[in-house]
């Protein structure tokens, strides 16, 4: 849900899909799903941490993942706010800028890292001595 | 015949690729991660199409336009999950093959294929009539609802395969060196 929605916004920024819609139309279609999905994941994520606090909190992957989640949430908030305030500028010039497109790809890669790190919580030994779990 | 399947499973399990993945420290987790990334994109993009068919979202957009925009990404992501899934399967083929959740998942995947075929043969043929309409044929709505239900079940089954085929998760006690009272104060001082 979250990744799918974010993906559609990236594709629109990159000009690879949804070109019959403006950027604003695309974000108003998908951003609510992104926000809703994030809240849902926050809720279920908290339940998982409460359920197995040791498994989650004593991993390097978990804390790195949470940092990236914070970064990506911040990017999303800044982007949406900026789009709301400077809608015309976004539609006419910003969206054609290489740097903005690069940023879109970079943010998608952050999402990919978040997913990989989430899975790595179960395999924290890959971090060797960086993982607090291996210091036992 | 049963013997043939068993020896086939054993053979792929013993193959060089499977051994390589099993012996590696990080290959299996990496495959799992790519699998998750791919499935999130498959489910995310399919939901967009299904919700359009159900008349719940993007109803003002041309269905054909959305389909040609989105489905190529869905297929690409699906190929990624199929490839990584197959690579994970061969590392422990005999166990996965007999696992209830694995079998159910494969059955559901076949059913989603049939579901897609039904759509293409019915509502898909009359798409020019309802392409720009918010209301879609009843068969399209049914297909979309089934698709959503099956894909969510597929993700659930996949997660259950992981829970039921690997060694039982033992809740390890906290390492003695971790001080929960001062958890954010950095590593314990010796």
Short description:
The complex is a heterodimer of chains A (136) and B (190). Chain A is mainly alpha-helical and 136 residues long.
Describe this structure as you would to a colleague:
The complex is a heterodimer of chains A (136) and B (190). With 136 residues, chain A is mostly helical. Chain A has one domain. Chain A contains 6 helices and no strands. In chain A, helix 1 runs antiparallel to helix 2. The model of chain A has no long low-confidence stretch (mean pLDDT 87). Chain B is an all-alpha fold and 190 residues long. Chain B has one domain. Chain B contains 8 helices and no strands. Chain B is globular and about 65 Å long. At the A-B interface, helix 1, helix 3 and helix 6 of A face helix 3 and helix 4 of B.
Shape of chain A: elongated
Shape verdict of chain B? globular
Helix content of chain B: over 70%
Structural class designation of chain B: mainly alpha
Task: Sum up the structure in keywords.
heterodimer, A: 136 residues, 75% helix, elongated, B: mainly alpha, 8 helices
Task: Describe how the helices and strands are arranged.
The complex is a heterodimer of chains A (136) and B (190).
Chain A: H1 2-14, H2 23-51, H3 53-57, H4 60-85, H5 87-92, H6 98-120
Chain B: H1 2-14, H2 16-23, H3 27-53, H4 63-91, H5 93-98, H6 100-121, H7 127-130, H8 138-165
Helix pairs in contact in B: 2-4, 3-4, 3-8, 6-8
């Amino acid at each position: 849900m979250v990744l799918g929605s974010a993906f559609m916004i990236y594709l629109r920024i990159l000009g690879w899909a949804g070109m019959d819609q403006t950027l604003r139309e695309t974000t108003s279609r998908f951003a609510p799903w992104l926000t809703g999905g994030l809240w849902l994941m926050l809720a279920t994520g908290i339940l998982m941490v409460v359920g197995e606090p040791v498994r989650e909190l004593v991993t390097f992957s978990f804390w790195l993942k949470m940092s990236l989640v914070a970064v990506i949430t911040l990017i999303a908030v800044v982007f949406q706010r900026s789009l709301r305030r400077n809608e015309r500028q976004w539609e006419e010039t910003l969206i054609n800028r290489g740097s903005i497109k690069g940023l879109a790809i970079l943010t998608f890669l952050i999402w990919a890292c978040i997913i990989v790190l989430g899975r790595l919580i179960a395999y924290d030994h890959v971090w060797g001595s960086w993982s607090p779990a291996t210091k036992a | 015949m049963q013997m043939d399947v068993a020896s086939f499973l054993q053979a792929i399990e013993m193959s060089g690729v499977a051994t390589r993945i099993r012996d590696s420290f990080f290959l299996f987790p990496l495959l799992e991660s790519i699998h998750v990334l791919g499935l999130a994109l498959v489910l995310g993009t399919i939901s967009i199409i299904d919700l359009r068919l159900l008349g719940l979202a993007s109803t003002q957009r041309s269905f054909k336009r959305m389909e040609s925009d989105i489905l190529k990404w869905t297929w690409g992501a699906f190929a990624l999950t199929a490839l990584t899934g197959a690579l994970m399967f061969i590392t422990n083929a005999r166990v996965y093959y007999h696992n209830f959740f694995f079998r159910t998942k494969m059955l559901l995947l076949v059913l989603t294929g049939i579901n897609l075929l039904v759509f293409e043969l019915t509502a898909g043929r009359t798409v020019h009539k309802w392409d720009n309409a918010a209301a879609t044929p009843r068969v399209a709505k049914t297909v979309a609802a089934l698709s959503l239900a099956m894909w969510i079940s597929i993700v659930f089954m996949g997660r259950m395969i992981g829970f039921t085929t690997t060694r039982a998760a033992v809740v390890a006690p906290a390492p003695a060196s971790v001080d929960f009272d001062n958890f954010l104060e950095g590593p314990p001082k010796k």
